[in-house]
Design goal:
Mean pLDDT: 89
Strand order of the largest sheet: 2-3-9-5-6
Distance between the termini: 54 Å
Low-confidence stretches: 1-5
Structural class: alpha+beta
Number of helices: 23
Helix content: 55-70%
Number of strands: 9
Strand content: 5-15%
Length: 578
């Protein structure tokens, strides 16, 4: 008894000394932030050093950042119409594309960075935030070491490298950072943490304002996953969690409602057919197993599924250990299996039945969530590993190191596969010439925009109009008139016309419901010409013409619904309804 008491005293003294010698928590957390920042630089070093490769969507993001930030500097708080794209015809780009990442980009632009360095900074920021938010998700679940290892797995996962270097997916990269927050706040909400429901609502708002396809992906996976908790959580708690998400989407109505209601004015349905649509991008057995080299996403899918399967097998082998409870991974196994099914050709009947899902174009976009699941399973496994005897710990840690190295190897090789602007070497840089124009000369009506946001023609809805470079701002199609431009701003154009004969005037602006025409101070209807631009028919006389880009009914309704949703959310929180 005396010896046991002495042993306990010694142990308590050792624990006391260890506690005193341990660095303060804020230093530990600060050190982890620094480690994640260094890891971000190492992973994205090729882009930071050599610049962009110009692949896929890079050209659009560069164009949008340039014009979005310019119109912000003009005093337009929410630049929904990019007036200088499509060779000056304009585009309702940010009616349909979420703006949040471009506000971040505008901050970098206003701080003095050029367009290329701005985009590099945005990709690096999204990568760093992905690691940080995953660490925050796992810290209280598994401890700092396991959470940090999971964060490394998350930011080195092949799909993120694929998204950065092959697709140039800026918005989807930022959603990678919001996914861990989404699950963290969801789990806290389901644990009756009332404060987290406000955060959960705002997380859904942020996702909606970051990337629409990723919003759909998160919704398709999240809502059934939350309903799964009806088996072991009170129905009231689950419904409050879902209500928080609905409130968050309601707050984003100022973007979501116009994007839905105004899509009938543009060519956005063509997205279903681009790059083969969903039908051409569902994965067969050979692609899931990485056997074929025809599809660039195949090795990414095979790698991620292999990692998940290895971690699951090792976890169940360790089931006999009292340090592991297999039921904690069943939830993730079910979601991983569901995602694998959705990206495979076996789910074709689901995609064919859902026009909304078809707008995703690429079923493998669901790898966003699958990547998160793989990192979660690795975090769970590391947490278990740290509780095992030293010998087992050393052997199994080799598996963790191997997974992280294989992850990094994929992104490393892919980042060096393509020539870049700053270091093209002996490669052919012909495909980078347009990128250089975007960076060096963005505001002289030389830049295109995506075809799906161009207007539907009144006589031919099968294909969008094609803008022609070098067209005058205003031209006389027929008749005889003299034109003088007084003002030509992004949202406000003023000019005068003196028509000596009946004249048709063409204004180089794509027709869109937000444009309002005033002739001699009176509102007048807008006609669309055969090429999708605004056309005026004037009798002989003198006219003061004014064109203003104003709020549409859908936008006004969206603003009202956003305000009502935010007010309702605050009311529900204060009244403890959610």
């Amino acid at each position: 008894m005396i010896r046991e008491t002495s042993s306990q005293t010694v142990k308590s003294k050792i624990d006391s000394i260890t506690t005193k010698l341990s660095p303060p928590p804020y230093l530990l957390e600060g050190g982890i932030v620094v480690i994640l920042a260094i890891a971000t630089i190492i992973i994205n070093f090729k882009m930071i050093k050599d610049g962009l490769n110009g692949n896929a969507d890079i050209k659009w993001h560069l164009t949008w950042i340039q014009h979005f930030s310019k119109q912000l500097s003009e005093g337009i708080l929410y630049p929904r119409w990019l007036a200088g794209t499509n060779y000056g015809y304009g585009s309702p780009t940010f009616v349909f594309y979420p703006p949040l990442a471009y506000y971040f980009g505008s901050f970098f632009r206003l701080s003095g960075l050029d367009a290329q360095d701005t985009l590099i900074s945005l990709f690096s920021l999204a990568l760093f935030l992905s690691g940080l938010t995953f660490y925050l998700y796992g810290r209280n679940k598994w401890g700092r070491i396991a959470a940090l290892m999971g964060a490394f797995a998350y930011i080195t996962v092949p799909y993120i490298g694929f998204d950065i270097y092959w697709r140039g997916g800026l918005g989807s990269m930022f959603v990678q950072a919001w996914i861990p927050l989404l699950w963290l706040l969801t789990e806290q909400s389901l644990s009756s943490n009332k404060k987290s429901r406000l955060g959960l609502a705002m997380c859904w708002t942020i996702i909606a304002l970051t990337h629409t396809p990723s919003l759909l992906i998160c919704a398709v996976i999240w809502f059934p996953s939350v309903l799964f908790f009806l088996f072991n959580k009170p129905c009231k708690i689950v419904l409050k969690t879902i209500l928080s998400a609905v409130m968050g989407l309601g707050i984003a109505s100022f973007y979501l409602l116009p994007a839905i209601l105004e899509k009938r004015f543009v060519n956005i349905e063509t997205m279903k057919e681009l790059h083969g649509g969903f039908s051409g991008n569902l994965l067969g057995i050979q692609e899931l197993l990485g056997i074929t080299n025809n599809n660039p996403i195949s090795p990414v899918v095979f790698h991620q599924l292999s990692v998940i399967i290895v971690l699951i097998i090792l976890a169940f082998i360790a089931e006999r250990s009292r340090f592991f409870q297999p039921q904690e991974i069943w939830y993730w196994i079910v979601i991983a299996f569901s995602i694998t099914f959705l990206i495979s050709s076996f789910s074709r009947f689901i995609w064919e039945a859902s026009p909304t899902l078809q707008m995703l174009q690429f079923p493998w976009r669901f790898l966003q969530v699958l990547s998160f699941i793989g990192a979660v399973l690795l975090g769970i496994f590391v947490n278990m590993l740290l509780k095992l005897p030293l010998g087992y710990r050393f052997l199994l840690s080799i598996v963790i190191v191997g997974i992280l190295l294989m992850n990094f190897r994929y992104s490393y090789k892919l980042s060096r596969k393509y020539i870049t602007i700053r270091n093209p070497g002996r490669g052919n840089i012909e495909h980078l010439q347009h990128i250089k124009t975007i960076i060096d000369d963005p505001y002289t009506d030389k830049l295109r925009d995506v075809r799906e946001y161009r207007p539907l023609l009144k006589n031919d809805t099968s294909s969008p109009p094609v803008p022609v470079i070098g067209q005058p701002k205003i031209s006389v199609i027929s008749g005889q008139s003299e034109i003088e431009i007084q003002q030509w701003k992004s949202y406000h154009r003023i000019f005068s016309v003196t028509a000596e004969k009946f004249s048709k005037i063409r204004v180089r602006i794509y027709s869109y419901p937000a444009w309002n025409l005033y002739i001699n101070g009176k509102s007048s209807p807008i006609n669309m010409s055969n090429d999708g631009t605004i056309e005026l028919e004037l009798e002989p006389g003198s006219y003061g013409i004014e064109l203003r880009y104003q709020k549409t009914q859908a936008f006004i309704l969206g603003i009202i619904l956003s305000l009502l949703s935010f007010t309702a959310l605050i009311f529900f929180v204060r009244m403890r309804i959610i």
